[in-house]
Design a protein that fits this description.
Blueprint: H1 3-32, H2 40-43, H3 50-59, H4 62-82, H5 86-102, H6 110-130, H7 134-161, H8 164-168, H9 171-176, H10 193-208, H11 217-238, H12 241-248, H13 251-260
Helix pairs in contact: 1-4, 1-12, 1-13, 4-5, 5-6, 6-7, 6-12, 7-10, 7-13, 11-12, 11-13
Amino acid sequence: MPLSLGARWLEWLLCLSLLIQTLEYLRLLPALADDGYAPWRLQRADIPQAWIRRGLDVLFTPAALRAQLLLRLVVLALIALQGSSLGLVMFLFISHLLVLIRWRGAFNGGSDFMTLVALTGLLIVHSVALAGNPALGWRAGMWYVGLQSITSYFVSGWVKLLQPQWRSGKAMPIFLECAVYGPLAAGHVLRHPLLGRLGAWAFIVWECCSPLALWHPLAAWAFCAVALVFHFLVFWFFGLNRFFWAWLASFPAILACSAQGIF
């Protein structure tokens, strides 16, 4: 995938991912109200610095938080239609951090991290471009996102490899017991020890070999195709829709980087 095309696809997919996140946050605003289960008056006690509390008191009023999220929708529409800029990306970056602070540091774990990675990549793009080299900026930003994404799979694979339960295949049914559709039936096919071991080792090998995606464009396309299926299954079994869209937004960077080559 050419760098320019990959860059535009990254922007579009990131906008889609952030759109879904923003709509979810808007839906959950009642939970953050004074009479909700996570009011700001309780969380603010965690912040020792008085001057920071005063500033966040203003930013985290229900009206200010809603206005910020609605402004997000406008910014996402602008980026989708005309492309990103330093000001627009900086707003999304700060907004993302503020919302995570309001949810005590994280809302959805890994997907929050990958969203931050993509936004940081775009900040690198436009910061370098501001210094007078847009081409280098896009190259640096895309490589940042691509390498961070590949690293996330690689580390996950090696963590599994070091765990006896994953090597034996016992981890698969344990995780699936927590699926959104409830515990697996006693005779479910995924409880079979051989299938559990094959599935576990398939994930381990695929994730540990993730750096090979940068070896050749065909390898990158194959890797991203498998990753697409993997994240869809995670969404299907565990309801983690944000993981699907957050990592999908990084795929254009992987494809663009593989086209440039590192070997």
